[in-house]
Design a protein that fits this description.
elongated; mainly alpha; 6 helices
């Protein structure tokens, strides 16, 4: 394959990743995961509270409150991300980093329980590797979020360059 063939392939790959539709699909996918996670926990707050308590990171008085509020927060920011509301990607990123921190803590402590990411049947001991698997999934979502940030930065740069390239527009 010659240089022209490689350039054509590179151009197609680049245009795919710079496409507004790729950006939207990735954004909607992340939002769907967060919405589903919130929705599934909203209907199982008791189970979710048991999992939160099992981590031992919150005082007992805050556990039920967290189990009721966190799913709603996930769903609200997911809806905001679907609509591409300013600040929603940042909030989803912060939530994901918080969840990853909790998972790292659980792995460090040697916990053998469900991550609490989605509806479950309580802490379920004997779930070896569940925290690692959830962490790996979160790393993939963090990479997708990174793509969204890069896409936004590149699209702003392209827009600025296109405006400056127009006749009669000062740089």
């Amino acid at each position: 394959m010659g240089q022209q063939g490689l350039n054509a392939i590179w151009k197609n790959v680049l245009s795919f990743f710079l496409s507004i539709w790729t950006y939207r699909l990735v954004r909607w996918g992340i939002a769907a995961v967060f919405f589903y996670a919130g929705w599934s926990k909203l209907w199982a707050t008791t189970d979710f509270a048991v999992i939160i308590h099992a981590y031992g990171l919150l005082p007992l008085a805050w556990v039920e409150w967290a189990a009721r509020v966190l799913p709603v927060v996930e769903m609200v920011f997911a809806c905001a991300l679907i609509s591409d509301i300013r600040g929603s990607l940042c909030m989803i990123t912060l939530l994901l980093l918080l969840f990853m921190g909790v998972l790292l803590y659980g792995m460090h402590m040697g916990f053998d329980l469900n991550c609490g990411c989605f509806k479950s049947d309580g802490p379920v001991t004997g779930a070896r590797g569940a925290l690692r698997l959830a962490f790996a999934r979160d790393v993939l979502m963090l990479l997708a979020i990174g793509y969204l940030y890069v896409w936004r930065w590149l699209s702003r740069s392209r827009t600025r360059e296109q405006r400056c390239a127009e006749p009669g527009v000062a740089a």
